[in-house]
Hints:
Layout: H1 3-25, E1 27-35, E2 40-46, E3 51-58, E4 61-67, E5 72-76, E6 84-92, E7 95-102, E8 107-114, E9 118-126, H2 145-149, E10 172-177, H3 194-212, E11 216-219, H4 229-238, E12 243-250, E13 260-265, H5 272-282, H6 295-307, H7 311-332, E14 336-342, H8 345-348, E15 354-361, H9 365-371, H10 374-394
Parallel strand pairs: 1-5, 10-11, 10-12, 12-15, 13-14
Antiparallel strand pairs: 1-2, 2-9, 3-4, 4-7, 6-7, 8-9, 13-15
Amino acid sequence: xPRSRYRIQAGFVGALLFASLLAQNIARVRVMVxxxxxxxxxxxxxxxxxxxxxxxxxxxxxxxxxESQSPVHIQSGPVTSRLIRSVSMSRQGSRxxxxxxxxxxxxxxxxxxxxxxxxxxxxxxxxxxxxxxPSPKPAEKKPAPAVEEKPAAAPPQDKGRPTVPLxxxxxxxxxxxxxxxxxxxxxxxxxxxxxxITLAISLKLKSIIERNLAFRVVLTRDKDVEVLLENRAAxxxxxxxxxxxxxxxxxxxxxxxxxxxxxxxxxxxxxxxVRRLAYFENTxxxxxxxxxxxxxxxxxxxxxxxxMAQAAxxxxxxxxxxxxxxxxxxxxxxANRGIKQAPFKVLTEVACPAILVExxxxxxxxxxxxxxxxxxxxxxxxxxxxxxxxxxREFPAESLRR
Length: 402
């Protein structure tokens, strides 16, 4: 083979190898914009961990600066959002600038990151301007009757908030903040207690539901007190609840365990971790000494399930769990541990669609840090709320009556 031809082929192969290595070092960043009931979210998902700065450069714009020694390829589609007008990219040397242009100057924003894959998440929340007080007008001798007879103007509707109109009659959702009082639940390495996290998330979820849905919301506890498991179920049954949502934070002997998981009722859990978790959640002070595997106890539970026709709610509970889990995965970027069935006692005696949400792992240092942050708690509440809304849309209110 002629040497010149060999040199050409060798150079071509070398160029391919260089291009391959260069492609491996490129940070590919996908920009996504999505509206939620309470906020609008911009997510930067990257194949590599990003070093960034965030600043509000003008009243209506946020600037995200990405520092990278490697090339950065940013991909973004059209923006359709009630709060965000556009997302644009520019470059200043090795620094890439992403500018988020809002449609209003009256907003606040928060940000946080999650890993695997790396995501930088910014949430923009519109701030309602205080109503302007009209200047007093001189008294008129003969006020126009038409002005006096005008009905008061209705408050402006927030078109970004999905509402679910219901027929007349009280409708109730019961939210159950796990543990409380002497029963602190799981504990993180930094001292974060499950009972405090579940109450914080539950209060936020209650606030979101009451602002957006025509439901009354009842909490099984609204402060740090101990509540018996049977009393938690009774709160749902005594209030003729249409949904029961029990909120918990997970714990594991493996620090690497991470992510969210949502449960609905099944007496025969097969997964060892699920059986262990169910035992932990069921074993409160009033249940000490009770052997869950006792045949009489199992028969009693089956009779309860038969009497209250719980089988009629299994399908709805399963779907509620599925939709809430999907929102947790998409909204929070946490690992998907899936939908599971477990014999949680707090679910067995509830006569309506019921789920138990394990938000994240307090035994995981990174997730413990997230669980302690206000914005993460709001995001969890928002995810559960959106899953609930999607379920209500699938099952009309009339179908949830006993």
